[in-house]
Amino acid sequence: MAQVPQTFFDALAVRTWCSLSLRALGRAREEIDAINVYPVADGDTGTNLYLTLESAATAVEAVFAGYETGRAEPSLGDAARAMAHGALIGARGNSGTILAQLLRGMAQVLAEAGECSAADESSAASRADGPGLRLALRRAADSARQAVAHPVEGTVLTVASAAADAAEEAGDDCRTVARAAYEGARAALAATPDQLGVLRRAGVVDAGGRGLVTVLGALVEAVTGEAVRETAGGVSGARSAGPAESAGPAGPAGPAGAAGHAAGTAGRSAGSAGHGAGGGGAGATGDGTEPACPTEPACQDEDEDGGDRGEAGGPAFEVIYLLEADDAAVARLRVRLDALGDSLVVVGGDGLWNVHVHVDDAGAAVEAGVEAGRPYRIRITHFGHGEPHPGRERPSRAPAQRAVVAVVPGEGLAGLYGEAGATTVLARPGEPPASGELVQAVRRAHAREVVLLPNDAELRHTAAAAAEQVRAEGIRVALIPTRSAVQGIAALAVHEPRRRFDEDVVQMTAAAGATRYAEVVVAERRSWTTAGICQAGDVLGLIDGDVAVIGTDVTATARTVLDRMLQSGGELVTLVVGDEAPETVAAHLEARVRESYLAVDTMVYHGGRQGALLLIGVE
C-alpha cells in the first residue's frame, strides 16, 4: 500500500520506516542469506538483519500502544529511542549488531532534533527536517565504524558511509536526503566486489550492505510514499556486475557513472576509517569487520595464492551477550576481548551493551564480561557444530534421521533439553522467538525428520509458520502443540528415534497431553481474572492457562495449586524453579507430596531466568 509522503521525519515516520523495513527484509531475506560469504559463509545475514529489525519494530509498536488510551502521541525521541533499544537487545550476529549501532546513531540525532523542534514555539510537533535526517545518517555511519576496531572496506560500513556522503550533497528536505542516501548506498554496494576479494571470487556483493540498501529503500518509501524500484533479484542481484553491466540502467549500480561515484565514496570512507582502540571500538568481523590482523590494507590484499588473509582460519566459538556495565569497564573489556580473538563488535551505551566476538576460549570471553559488569542472554556457538569460520571447510556430516527442536523459557531448561538431545531456542520474558529463529533452529538440527515443541500456546501459530517453511525445504516436520515446558519434558521423556516417525509423534503427543501444567507468577497490574480481581504484586497460580489461585505468599500459593492438580490423581510431579522463587519452595513442595500423596514421585529442575517463579507439571 502506498505511503503518505512526508517532508519531515516524526514518530509516525519512524514507525512506518520500521514496518516497511521489516516487510522488505522479509522479502529479501533468502536472497541475502544466499550471498552471505564473508566473513563467515553461514548463510544467515538476511535472517539476522530481519530478526534485529523485528525487535526494533516491536519496541516502536509498544511505544505507540502505550499512547492508545489518550489523545497524545509519542514524540520523535520516544519512537527513535525505542527503535534503537529494541534493535540493541534483539541484535543477532555481526550484521544485526552493526545494524543496531547504525540505528542507535540515527536515534541519537533524531531524538535531539525532535526535542529542539518541540521546544520551538513555531513548531507544531516533535520532528526532524532534511538537515536533521542528513546528520542522523552521518552519525549512524560514524558510530558503526567506531564500534569496530579493524574496519574493512567492501562491507556494510562502506555502504553506510557512502549513504551518508551522498546525503550531504542532497537538498534540505527529507525526501531528497533519503533518496540521495539510497542511491549512494546502491552505488557503493555494486562496488563491494572490487574492494573485497572473497566477494569478487564468489561473484556476489556484500550481504550486510545489501541488507542496508533494503532498509534505506524502506526509508525512501516512508518519506516519499513511493516504493523504490529494484531490479530482478533485488537491488544487488545474485552476483556482482562487471564494468560494462554496471554502467547500464538495469544493472545493480543503476545509472551510468554510479560505479565511479562508488569508487570515490569508498575512497573517502577508507580515509576516514578508524583503527583499533583509536576508533573507540572493539573489532568485529561479519558485515564490516574481519578476523584480527595488524592493518586494514594488509588484510584486504590478496596473497600470492590469491586468498585473503582473513580466510586463513579463525577461532572456534562465537560468543554473544548483553552487558550492563559503565563506559570505563567496557573500554577495558574491548582491549581484553580484542586480545582473545577477532570479529569483535561492542555496540550500545548508557550502561547497556551488546558484545559479539569469535574466540577459541569461550569461557574467557564470558569471564571478561563478568569482570566488566553483568552479562546475560549469553549465546555460545561452536563453528564446528554449525557453519564454518572463514577458511574452515564446511563440515560434511550427513543429516541425522530425527531431531527434536524445542522452545524453552530459561537457561536451566535449555541445558536440560540439550542433555536430552534437543536443539533449543531460548524464549526470554516478553520476547517470544520469531518464526525465523525456529526455522534456523530446525536447520541447525540437521535432520531429515524434526519434532517441533513450541511449549507455549501463544507460539503455536509462529511454530506452524516455521514448520511450513522448512517443509518446503524437504524436511519432514511434526508440530506437537505443547503449551508449557513441562509438557515438553514429558514428550521428550518418551521420544524414541528408532521408532517410526508417526509412532514417535503419537507417543510424544500423548505424553504431553496427559500432563497438566501450572505456573506461579506475580501480577504486574490490577486485573480481572477467572479467580477474581488481583492487585499488582499478588501471587497468581495458573492451572492449564487460567488463573485458579490468588495469594500473597509464593510457597502457600504453589502448595494450593499443587493440591488442586493432584486431586484428580497423578504419578509424577515436575517442578521447574526460577531464579526469583524462594529458595525453600521446592523442598516444601517435595515434602508436601511425600507426606500427603502416596506413590507420587517428584522431579525438581532449575529453570534460571524463566519468567515464571515456578512451573509445575503433573503426569
Automatic annotation (TrEMBL):
Biased composition regions of type Low complexity, renumbered to the chain: 237-272
PROSITE patterns the record matches: DHAL
SMART domains reported in the protein's UniProt record: Dak1_2, Dak2
Domain of life (superkingdom): Bacteria
InterPro entries found in the cross-reference section: DegV_domain_contain, DhaL_dom, DhaL_dom_sf, FakA-like_C, FakA-like_M, YloV-like
Ranges of Gly residues composition bias in the record: 273-286
UniProt region (Disordered), positions on chain: 230-313
Domain called DhaL: residue spans: 12-221
Protein name: DAK2 domain-containing protein
